[in-house]
Amino acid sequence: MTDIPAIYQGKLNTLDQITVSPLSRAYTFSDSIYEVIPYFLGKPLCLKEHFNRMIQGSNLMSLNVDFDSVNNDIKKLAATLINQDGYIYYQISRGVDMIRSHMYQDDLEIERFGYAMPVSFPSSSVSAMLCTDDRWGKCNIKSTSLLSNVLAMNKAKSLGCQEVVMHRDGFMTEGGSSNVFYFDSSGSVRTSSLSENILPGITRSILIEALKDTPYSVKEGNCAVSDFNESPCIWLTSSTKGILPLSSLIGTDYKFEENFDNYMDVAELFNSAMQSHLAASE
Fold it and tell me: Which residues span the domain enclosing 163?
């Protein structure tokens, strides 16, 4: 892991050479936001949308970020992914304190960090565990404060799962690192409406737009987890997962219908939309 390209405060290096202060507010308070931008053969998927979500998150956190510098950092990292599949992880924190304090100084220098990772993206179905959503109340901010996700997903890992599907009071919110869609018993495609409990996923948006004006137009709203018991197919969307069906969902009576024709249609529409976005990529 010594040759992974990384950047800190605008200086390109390798990940093993990056040093960060233990008083970084990203470290002491998770006072930071992040993005994961997927690249396919060196082309970013929806870079503008990821960038805009960083801007929105920084505004919600009152971070005074120089986004020209952010753009330059991402360009430097992207240059290391030419003709490769992979992703850029990029993080912005409020800065480094003189000494740990909940109340930050107004003149802190914004801290920027990122790295580029070549990967092969998954394509097979995964298993998940149903769990209560006990995260904080501002999940629409893509914050690095992910302790609840970490605890839930590692409990799921101990049961042989790769994800969780969370709910509040019996209504689905989202996955631990993904948005969730499913076919209900009447054949409609369902997903939760956006709220402060839901991250506005970029891949989620691609799918919803791709299915508009088709027989699979998405119905957003309150989604009861009891629907899962009669669903023939539940699937996840995220920047690194793309679109992946669930083979099982522990805590429900869900039975996955492999090669379900309607899901195959949805996946084809999504893949076509993704290729269109990549063709228009900067």
Answer: 126-279
